[in-house]
Structure formats: structure tokens, C-alpha cells
Amino acid sequence: MCPSHPAPESPNVLKNNTFVGWLMALPIMAVLMFFLVLPIIMIVIVSFWQATEFSIVPAFVWENYEFLFGSNVTYRVFLNTFKYAAITWAFTLGIGFTVAYFLAFHVRSLTWQIVLFLLCTIPFWTSNIIRMISWIPFLGRNGIANSTLISWGVIDAPLEWLLFSDFAVILAFVHLYTLFMVVPIFNTMMRIDKSLIEAARDAGASGAQILWNVIIPLTKPGIMIGTIFVVTLVMGDFITVRFMSGSQSANVGRLISNDIALLAYPSASATAVVLLLTVLIVIGILLRFVDIRKEL
Amino acid sequence: MEPRPRSFYILATFFALFLLFLYGPTITIAILSFQGPGGGLTFPMRGTSLHWFRDLFEQQAVGDIWGSFRRSFALGLMVMVTTVVFSVMGGLAFRKKFRGSGLLFYLIITSLVIPSILISLGVGLIFSQSGFEVHWSTSGFGAQLTWTLPFGLLIMFAVFNRFDKSYEEAARDLGASSWQTLRHVVLPIIGPSLIGVALFGFTLSYDEFARTLLTSGSYNTLPLEIFGMTTNVTTPVLYALGTLTTVFSLLMIGLFLCLALLSARRKARAGSDAGKGMV
From 1.10.3720.10, 1.20.1740.10, 1.20.5.170, 3.20.20.70, which CATH number describes the B35-42+49-54+64-268 domain? Predict the structure, then answer.
């Protein structure tokens, strides 16, 4: 290869960048094309197909969408999905922010920060299914929570709504996804220039004022990224709702997976298209508040 | 050092409770998996034994646990290697702005936020409609990559955002070719982060459920097998399996973290102190 001379940015350089860039990005591009873009296109196409009892037939009909929007269940299930997302978001944000704040501003040595941070993230690398299963001995009818409350005399009979209820669903969501808040918020907090906080203190701000007027505004990008993660994970979930509600509650994901189980792929696809659009609109709104590439 | 404010103790308590919330349930099933043979899914413990672990190793245990473990392990390694290689290439590509890089970036974000069941459904449909058999090593492998690659790439973006370009310039000034610069300068510097990417690639694949659900075909991966057990197994054998695979995950995480620590140490030892002031 010839030694490169510093050349002025000419159209040629940009062209060359584009070629090399595409060459290097080709493998990722290929994977995403085949396993992300094509599947989405396929789902959109199949959402216009017809289903017979044992197979699906290519067609161009709107009946899947008509059925979807004509059914009351759809609206209730979508509303329920938003409800799960909103409640989980509020809890994960509250807990995640507090944990990140403690790690970033109250733990003084870097080693301890890393160790405690890792302790928060390790469960992310273990199985979600098992972490859900592990609530059974705690929440079950004769579980730890009920027997403790009974032995304390708080309740006389075991609470029935602990396991297999909306309560259990939200609890599992918070349990599974809080670290998606902790990590980005902690990351943003660690980049806050400590002298800003000192300056605020020198100017006479109280601890609460520093938190509200300095730290929270500067942490917003992290909060937004965490929000994107939590909201999309909860909105797209189907397995947590199915397992933790004991099949008693529904969200959009379960609607889709139920259709799949009945081999009603066109109907599942129509619901999937609507879900995808909903999620993308939510993300589109959230992305207006944060430039992800700048925050990495 | 100034004394700790009172808020420190309140927050420290909160943090401890959070850790208890995170780990408590898992520790509970770990304890319960040592139930005696007559024990049930909750406390009290009816004696302690290895009965339920022994059950796992016997033939009559439900399903094909060990087969699914082998498949999950192999798939995890495949996904890990692919994720590391593709993410490094993608990360390098994104260092210079190229036409279409914005579009690709949004594609990666979409891959991250798209509900997993859509990938499962879409990939499953493509394979079935074009007459291919879904299999964990083809459709399952690709479906999992849509989940691991975005994480790998985001890590690489973060790494290259902090990368000091003067090292490369120095190498080039000394006459190194682009390949030599990459091989002897860039890769050793980003090495420890690659172990992080590998950790994400392996563990996210090993535990993936939703994206593998309709794409793994007739041979289950371990998470699918475990989920199948939840509907028909009501003995602590479920906990024993959960405990074993969690221990396996923890061992892998520990291994990766040790490797990262070692390679960071090596880097610190082998690297010169030039430019230390800038770090």
C-alpha cells in the first residue's frame, strides 16, 4: 500500500470512505437485512393473507386488520400494554435513578464503584426465565411472603393476588428490567463534571437543589436511553405476562403468541404490524429528546 | 475526607435492599433445590438432599435436558464469535462517516427495540414459506444475532469514541501498513473490550428465549426446554435445573471478567508509559 498523503477532503475521499465503510459493515448489513428487514417485510405481506384451518393463503385482504380494529379486546389489550409499560417505567426509573445516584455520587473509590456496578449487572447475563421461576417460592399461596405475613398477624388467610396477577407481572418486570435504567443513568452520571456540583454548593445550593437543578437535568440523556429500553422491552414482552399472570392477563405480545399457537399467522402478523408501529412511534418521540450516538 | 452525610446511610440501605431484591429469589430457589425427596416447591425444607440434582442426571427426567444444554452451549459459542468479529468490523466501519451510515445506525437501533416475537414470527414465516426447515443453527442463529449484534456494536461505538487516534498516526508515521496498524496497535488496545463483547454475545444467546421460540425447530435450546418444564413439572427438579444453569452462567461470567481483568493488566504492563498523562 502506498503511504497516505494528507489530502484535502475531496469527493474521492468520501467515495472511498463509503466503499471501505460498506465493505466493513457488510456482514452486519447482511445479517440485519436477512433476519430483521426481510422478516418485517414478510410480516407486513402475510398480514394481508388469508388463513384457512390448516394453512395460510396468499391474498390481499384487509380482513385481519378489520377484525383487529373491530374487536373490543384489541383496545383493552393495548391499553393494558400501555398500563404495564407506564407502571414499570415509573418504578424502574425511581429505583434505577436512586441506585445509580448512590453509586456515582456516594461511593467514593472507583474500585468499589466497579464492584457494586457489576453486582447490579450480573443478573442481566443470567436467564430471565429462571429469574421469573424464582419468584414462585416467594409469592406462592404457601410462599414466604404469605407465611411471613400470617405469622406476623398482618393477615389471617393467604393473599391470593401475590402470584399469578398483575402485581406479579409488574414485580417481575421491575425485577428483570431495572438494570436497563441503572446502566445508562450511571454512565451519564459518571460523566458529570464534579466541579459543577462544587460550584453549585459554593453558590449556596442545598443538596436537594443540586439534585433537582444540576444532576437531574444533566442525567436526562441517560434517563431517556433507559426509558427506551424499558418501554420497548415491556411493550414487546409476552412471556413474562403469560408466566407471571398465570395466563390471566393479556398484553399485545400475548395476543400475537396466542394467534401463533393457533397457526393463525395472518392475524398474528396484523397485530404484529400494529405493535411494531406503536413501538416505533413511541421510540420516535423519545429519540427527539436524546442523541444516542453522542451518549455512548 | 469529610464525614459521610446521613443521606449516604439511607441510600446505602436502599442499595442493599435492591441487591436483596435482585438476588434474593435466585438464592431462594438455590436453597430449595436441595429439598429432601418429599419436599415441595416452597418452604419448609423437608430435609436436605441431592435427590433433585440426581433426578436431572437420570434417564427418566423429563425432556432432553442435556441435549438442549449442548445445543445452547454450541449456539452460544457460534453467536459469540460472530458477534465479536462482526461488531469489530462494524465498529471500524463507523469510525469514518460513510454514505448510508445513518441508515445503518437506525437499523441497528430498530434491531434492538423491535419486539422479539416479531423476529421469531418473521424469520419463522420466511423459512416455512420458502420451504426451508427452521433449525437452531440456521434460523435460530440468525434470529439471536439480531439481539446480540446491537449490543456488541454499541459497545464498540463507546470504545472507539474514546479511542486516541494519535496511536494510529504514530504507527503510520513509522511506516506501518493499515493492516499492521490494525493488528499491532488497534486490536491490542481494544482487546479487553472485545472480551466484554464476547460476554454479551455468549450469555445473551445462552439465555435467549423469545427470538428462538419459533426459529429453533424441533430441537429445543435450554431456555425453551426449561420453559416447557414450567408447565408440567411441579417438583423441585425445576429449581435444581435452574440452579445448575445459573451456576454455569455465573462461571462463564466469572471467566470472562477474569479474562478482561488479566488482559487489562497485560495491556498496562506491556504498553509503554508514553501518553500516560493523557489517559
Answer: 1.10.3720.10
